[in-house]
Amino acid sequence: MTVNKAAPEHPAASDYQHPGSWDLDLPPLTMPEMFLGSAARRGDAPLADFMGRRFSYADIAREARRFAAGLAERGIGKGDRIGLFLPNVPIYIAAYYGTMIAGAIAVNFSPLYTVEELSDQVEDSGITLLVTIDSAAVLPTALKVLDASSLKGLVVGRLADALPTVKSLALRLLGRKQLTAIPDRADVHHWADFLGAQEAEPVALDAQTDLALLQYTGGTTGRPKGAMLSHQNLTANARQVNAIDPFDPEDPDVILGVLPFFHVFANTCVLNRTVLKGGMIAMLPRFDAKQALKTLERVGATSFPGVPTMYQALLDHPQFAKTDFTSLRICISGGAPMPAPVQEKFGAATGARLVEGYGLTESSGVVSTNPYEGENRSGTIGQPLPATRVKLLDKENAELDAPVGEPGELVIAGPQVMCGYWNRPDADETAFARRGNDTWLRTGDVAVIDAQGYLQIVDRIKDMISVGGFKVFPSHIEDVLLEHQAVKEVLALGIPDDYLGEVPAAYVTLQHGDDAEISAEGLREWTNGRVGKHERLKLVEIRASLPKTMIGKLDRKALRAEVLG
């Protein structure tokens, strides 16, 4: 269905709800019901295009049900956790929905994780199996985690099996450095061998209370926490996003899938929403500007969800001017603030509408977006989705509403809001604000709401650094630097970057302030060898002292004011 595209004017207030909310019915719906319903309806229609090879809804549904059968044959079922350590490849879709058909809970892991990061989350989530592929970028890490953790086994797919015939042969013959041999051991299963002979029927589930996904996020501290997302959380958010789509349901719906599925933005906007509507995802295992442009034109993509750095990279690529964007209608940007010049240039050059939205892992992906039709207000995160309520709380006292017309902490209520954090009731206490009978998810972001319900983020309560849409925690960088024997004190901040929005920088004092053997560049290189790709420092500055509060604590706020003005 389609809801109103713009809100009527009303006085600026501290709370707001989309005027179409009352028109959107969201009855309980499980993920298997959503997926298998689309598969029954769409059948032979393509669900995925992977490097030119197409997989139908029926193909992937069959494989998902056989994966669920393989889990059941090994005693894995309702409530068990299955890890997905995968880039965007077809078996991700089959493993994701197959896990849920079996009644188990999917757990997403970034393929960029180090052994330590993956091990920590494997132990925290208590996964039974980890699904991965034979790529040299992920399988060696997965094998090390298997040997050093409580993980019971791996299920490994072959990348070559997903490719068109010619590309598959080329990878097998010429791309061996890109692959890692699957070892012959009892706790490592080939994907094809793991699948059951029969197609499993979905396990009975309660959409409201049974969990579908554990999605890790840093929350308000540097230690990742698993956001517990129910079946209803995920299907509701997919339906909310689909409800603002004004296009004819019979028109082609082809999504360029370069956002990684392990990220909650892609999980909702690229995967679940597309499956709900019965569209096709043109999948790429990683973002490459040239390949993205080529794929967009080849498949006639109608939509491209991305982060601002992706749109900038496309604009910068020499192939951009030669690409036919006739099919492209809507691009949705999230994960980081969209620079106005990028938005304007991309829209003018392609003829597509580029809108900015906002969401959190804890909200299943999407909270608000600028409308696909109507006024697209640059610098805002748009209006709340249907069935979503937002409110502003006083920045200093969450027990009070923000004064009308004044900035306040953005809090959210809606069917997409998580059930809580996995095994972290302590974190739940600070994640939610309870007012009477209402429970609100706290975002830590300071916002304003205008008379038409458009939201604008004006500040952050959290210390997170947003690097091209990925969240980086200063505390983690600080902990790593403090392992260096020469470092005495450290504060990490996000500093502006034209391409990524923000990049990490660290300001340190030394144990021996006049130590001539320690250089800022040496500390930067040392740290960057010990952190993830998006955590790498752009700058290290050695100082004689760092600002402190009156009680002697390091004062990040004062340093930020000094550095950023």
What do you see in this structure?
The chain is α/β, with parallel strands linked by helices and 565 residues long. The chain has two domains: 31-363, 3-Layer(aba) Sandwich (Rossmann fold); 465-564, 2-Layer Sandwich (GMP Synthetase, Chain A, domain 3). The chain is built from 16 helices and 27 strands. The strands form six sheets. Strands 8-7-6-4-5-9-10-19 form an eight-stranded mixed beta sheet, sandwiched between helices. Strands 1, 17, 18, 20, 21 and 22 form a six-stranded antiparallel beta sheet that branches. A four-stranded mixed beta sheet has the order 3-2-12-11, with helices on both faces. Helix 4 crosses helix 5. The termini are far apart.
Q: What is the class of the largest domain in the CATH system?
A: Alpha Beta
SS class: alpha/beta
Helical run tally = 16
- Globally, the shape reads globular
Query: What distance separates the N and C termini?
Result: 47 Å
CATH-defined fold name of the largest domain: Rossmann fold
Count the E strands: 27
Strand order of the largest sheet: 8-7-6-4-5-9-10-19
Instruction: State the assembly state of the protein chains.
Output: single chain
The overall pLDDT, averaged over residues, is 91
Helix content: 25-40%
Count of the domains: 2
| CATH-level-2 architecture of the largest domain | 3-Layer(aba) Sandwich
Largest sheet descriptor: 8 strands, mixed
Could you tell me the strand content as a percent range? 15-25%
Low-confidence stretches: 1-12
Radius of gyration: 24 Å
The CATH homologous superfamily of the largest domain corresponds to ANL, N-terminal domain
